[in-house]
Structure formats: structure tokens, C-alpha cells
Design goal:
three-stranded antiparallel β-sheet, disordered N terminus, eight-stranded antiparallel β-sheet, alpha+beta
């Protein structure tokens, strides 16, 4: 008998997903002239940049997260978007409420009364992330699981909000969230395919002087996350036409982001106040930032986190060893 260090017995979540894909039988799919390989069994695909994502309606990407005690005491159910480098990206399985992306006016730093589409200074960003506790409205309330007032509606309007049961529960969970580089490249049209908007997100086309990257903990899904979540072998539309019934009925993220309307991270590059949402019918459009749409947080976990139990199904979500 030989002693084996416990670390070697772990099953890192990102490695597990990658191995599922690599060891599977693939089906070839072509969309917008791009050839993809799909793992139909596990609901996985590799995008044009080599990231492994969950796609279609496969029941394999559920994980218990934001727990009182890990691996499985008083947890929320989140969904795995995919693996990106050595990180695993998650999205909450439901909205935390409807708020403005940003609703500043000319008296509070915007160029108009329609808000400001700069994520690095957005009121929603400050609601979701740490270090904004000094803000009298919204600052870090979700991150700290507190209640107060949040921005919702035009001209700095506010509404009461309570994240004591839906916010990040404890420091254990906060420490699991990786500080991540989010890309803020924009575009002037939502008539794009997933591979195209993925490149624009990482590009430099933005409204005048807008930043192109942001380092932080919690953000919103990219349009490419939503675009790749559909089965590209069945949906051949651009994001603007994702209200096609085949596209919506084969997209696991649609019901999460937009039972009504849901905000995305990417902004319009043609003006100072428009940002991309998913509409209630499933299309991706452009919305004024002061609008109150659904907020579904996304975040990334570090590569060290391992699976304690579960298969990833809705009835047996992955449980994390923390």
C-alpha cells in the first residue's frame, strides 16, 4: 500500500468538463461558415476560439453554488456556461430582479437623460461587485447580501431592493469568485452570429473613449454566451433573429435571461446610452440603459475547485468540494 496525496484524487471541475468533451464522439456542425464539433451526449461544443461550452438543451450543466455550507447545504442552483482557459464560468439559474444597467442623467455624469453605457462606472456594476459600500444607493448590496435602494428607471430613479436571501451568502463563496478580465468591446448592430460578436466583444470598437476591458468579480453574460447556448446545428440565424422558434426552443439560456427582458454586458458603439438585452421573444436587440430589465449575474471559478458529487443533471447537480 502506498500513500497518495489527497490533491491528486480531486476532480477539478474545469478539467472534468474538458475531459468529457475530449473523450466524446463528435458531430460536425456548420454555422456561418464556421465548422464546430458537438458532443451531443454531454451537450458540449467547442467554439471558434477553443472554449468548451454547454449548448442546446442538454441536462448536464447544473451546479450547486452560493451555499451556506459546501457542498450542499442551503445552496442556489447555477448553470455552467463553459470553460475558458483554466476557469469555469457560471450563470445564476434565475434573475435577481429588474434594475437599470445605468440611469445617470446630465446632473450625475451622463451625456443625456438616457444613462451611460460604461460598465466600469455603471450603477449595476457597483450593485454586483465589492468595494462600493460607500455608495448611498445600490453599492455592493448584491455582493454583500444586503437590502437598501437600487437604481431603476430614468433620471436617477430608485426602488427598494433586498438581497438578503439572493445575494452572495458568505465569505467562503466570495473567495471562490475569481477576479476576471471582462471584455467591453461593442458593436453597432445585433445582426451578427455568435463567432462574430465574440470577436467584437474582445475588440476595440466602442463609443468615444469607452474602456475596452474591466477587471472584476461579477458581471453579466456576453451576447456570445447567449448565442452559443443555442444548438447551432438547428439555429442558423443571427442574434437579432434569435426569436426564431427553433433558436429559442434549443437554447438553454433563453428561459433564464429573458422570461421578459434581460440585460447583457455588451454595449452599442454608436451612442453613449444603449446596451444589448435579450428580448422576451429571444432576439438580441438594443435598449436604453435606464430601462429596468432582468439581472442575471455571471462569474468565474478558479481552476482549483473540484467536484465532490453529482452528475451535473438538474436532479443531481455538481457539488463542489470547498
Amino acid at each position: 500500500m502506498s500513500l497518495v496525496p489527497q490533491k491528486t484524487l480531486s476532480n477539478p471541475l474545469a478539467t472534468h468538463i474538458t475531459n468529457l468533451y475530449n473523450n466524446s464522439t463528435k458531430t460536425n456542425v456548420t454555422n456561418n461558415g464556421i465548422k464546430y464539433q458537438y458532443d451531443i451526449t454531454n451537450g458540449l461544443m467547442k467554439d471558434a476560439d477553443g472554449n468548451i461550452r454547454y449548448s442546446g438543451l442538454g441536462d448536464r450543466n447544473y451546479v450547486l453554488f452560493n451555499c451556506n455550507t459546501y457542498p450542499n447545504t442551503s445552496c442556489e442552483t447555477w448553470r455552467i456556461i463553459g470553460t475558458f482557459g483554466n476557469k469555469t464560468k457560471l450563470i445564476r439559474n434565475s434573475s435577481i430582479g429588474e434594475y437599470s444597467w445605468d440611469n445617470k442623467d446630465t446632473s450625475t455624469g451622463a451625456k443625456s437623460a438616457y444613462g451611460k453605457n460604461d460598465w466600469t462606472d455603471a450603477r449595476l456594476m457597483k450593485l454586483l461587485n465589492p468595494s462600493y459600500e460607500s455608495e448611498t444607493t445600490g453599492g455592493s448590496l448584491y455582493y454583500n447580501a444586503k437590502s437598501g435602494n437600487c437604481y431603476a428607471g430614468q433620471n436617477n430613479a430608485t426602488t427598494t431592493c433586498n438581497f438578503t436571501s439572493t445575494g452572495i451568502k458568505n465569505d467562503t463563496t466570495r473567495n471562490l469568485i475569481s477576479n476576471t478580465t471582462y471584455y467591453l468591446g461593442g458593436w453597432n448592430s445585433t445582426s451578427v452570429y455568435p463567432n462574430q460578436i465574440y470577436e467584437y466583444e474582445r475588440g476595440t470598437t466602442v463609443y468615444t473613449e469607452r474602456p475596452t476591458i474591466w477587471q472584476g468579480k461579477i458581471a453579466l453574460p456576453y451576447p456570445s454566451d447567449y448565442g452559443y447556448a443555442t444548438d447551432l446545428g438547428k439555429c442558423s440565424q443571427t442574434l437579432y433573429n434569435y426569436d426564431d422558434s427553433i433558436c429559442t426552443s434549443n437554447n438553454w439560456m433563453k428561459s433564464i435571461l429573458a422570461p421578459n427582458y434581460g440585460w447583457l454586458l455588451t454595449t452599442s458603439s454608436s451612442d453613449s446610452y444603449s446596451t444589448w438585452p435579450v428580448g422576451s421573444r429571444g432576439f438580441v436587440g438594443s435598449g436604453i440603459t435606464y430601462n429596468t430589465y432582468g439581472i442575471v449575474p455571471v462569474l468565474s471559478l478558479s481552476s482549483e475547485l473540484s467536484i465532490k458529487a453529482g452528475t451535473g443533471s438538474s436532479s443531481a447537480p455538481y457539488q463542489l468540494s470547498v
